[in-house]
Request: fold
Amino acid sequence: MIQISILIFAGLAYYFAVFITNKKVGYGLSFIFVALFILSIGLLVGNEYNHIGMEKVTKDRTVQISTVQKGSNVLLYKPVGTNGKENVYIYRTPDTVDAKKPLHTKADLHVDNKVKVEDNGSATLTQKTTRWNYKNGFYDFLFGLSGNGNDFVSQKNTFNVGSDWLVLTTDQASKLSKKMKDKSVQAQMKSEGEKYVKSTVMKAMQQNPSMTKAQIAKVTKQAESAFKVQAAKNLVKTLK
Reply:
């Protein structure tokens, strides 16, 4: 609305200064509209650069995330810049599991990403997004045509994943995938895995000699999963 007012004030100032016969009255009225014109320009500039009539509004949301690599829990990120503060994290949600492209965080200086490792259930992403919004309907009506309502200010992303997740760069993930396909590595992992699972099950049975077949199967599955994660973490340490 203020943009339209600027045009109207400019037109009226010109009209009264040029077409009114009584110059005293004409110039007086023209001066008023010139002042309104200047004031409107000032308000428009103030809204654009100092967000006059606006306030910061922060919204929170938490979503469950899924791995980007089926078969293993992996949270990928791509380093951007040199200080590590602009890393782009790549992830999926249950709704985008089958989508061609995964989701990712913004590559922006005003986006802060953190990863917390906590065994507290499902992996999640908590986002706190701050944007500029108009304080009320009046300011929205006045400056709405500027198109700067809902302007992005900052975002804080916190990924909460369990200890059974790997947090890798895209380069590490690619190298790890190739290494896992190496037959000698597979043979070593199979041998070590069998020993680890057998040792874990035996310890569990010593602590509880009356374990049922279902309980033994459960311990075996947990041991296999734990070894797989630890073996992958050990392999990551060897990557260059």
Q: What stands out?
A: DSSP finds six helices and eight strands in the chain. Residues 131 and 153 are 5 Å apart (CA to CA). The chain has a mean pLDDT of 87. The first strand starts at residue 54 and ends at 64.
